[in-house]
Write a structure and sequence with these properties.
This is TetR/AcrR family transcriptional regulator. Keywords: DNA-binding. Residues 39-58 bind DNA. With 220 residues, this protein is mainly alpha-helical. It has two domains: 1-58, Arc Repressor Mutant, subunit A; 60-215, Orthogonal Bundle (Tetracycline Repressor, domain 2), CATH 1.10.357. Helices cover 72% and strands 0% of the residues. The protein is globular, with a radius of gyration of 20 Å. The model is unreliable at 1-6 (pLDDT under 50).
């Protein structure tokens, strides 16, 4: 995609279209090489824009990926909600959370970079928009989980949903190692325990969490 003669977007629909072009360029680049390896210059080049034109729409590389992370939260929680039914057991709820994360590797990648990277070098407005999205999606999904699995209260379901994304952020990079580690594990299979299966690891951690939450309720 190229735009040798930059034309300023003036109408709202033109501005929205340009934002979408930038976001799509960033998404594709991250899918190809991982979030950590994409610079603002990379995004600008893929979108066919100068960096100065990209920052008219997003103040920084981090803001671009924070928007994509927010969209990921909405998409993921909607996907989990679609799997919820009445009178589910614990295993079914855990599987719904873990499997939908497995299906969204870029969201897991973004989760791993959010607090350490993407929440830095951003405006207060960008931070607020992201946090509102996260808060509203967690509350909405947790209410539905508690309705489907009444052994967990809404507040306990909030903890479970938050834990699911935390475990995803932790396990995604170690279960998808870079080439040198892939080669190391091939040469020394005994070290393979350091590269867990993502779905199994997240499911087990969530099972322990879901089992322990009711047991940790205050007495009385």
């Amino acid at each position: 995609m190229s735009e040798p003669d930059f034309i300023r977007a003036r109408r709202p629909e033109q501005k929205q279209r340009r934002r979408e072009v930038i976001l799509e360029a960033a998404r594709v680049l991250a899918a190809d090489s991982g979030v950590r390896n994409v610079s603002l210059s990379n995004v600008a080049g893929a979108a066919g824009l100068a960096k100065s034109n990209v920052v008219r729409y997003f103040g920084s590389r981090e803001e671009i990926y924070l928007v994509l992370a927010g969209a990921g939260w909405t998409e993921w929680t909607d996907a989990v909600a679609d799997r919820l039914t009445d009178d589910m057991n614990q295993d079914a709820v855990v599987y719904a959370l873990a499997y939908t994360l497995l299906e969204r590797p870029q969201f897991c990648d973004l989760l791993g970079h959010t607090t350490t990277n993407l929440e830095h070098n951003i405006s207060v407005a960008a931070a607020r928009a992201y946090k509102i999205t996260v808060y509203s999606t967690i509350i909405g999904l947790s209410t539905k989980i508690s309705r489907s699995y009444p052994l967990l209260s809404v507040s306990e379901s909030i903890e479970l949903v938050a834990a699911a994304t935390g475990f995803a952020a932790m396990y995604y990079p170690v279960s998808n190692p870079p080439p040198p580690l892939v080669e190391l594990y091939r040469r020394e299979p005994g070290l393979g325990a350091l590269c867990p299966d993502f779905l199994s690891a997240v499911s087990r951690a969530l099972t322990v969490m879901a089992t322990g939450l009711p047991a940790a309720r205050p007495l009385g």
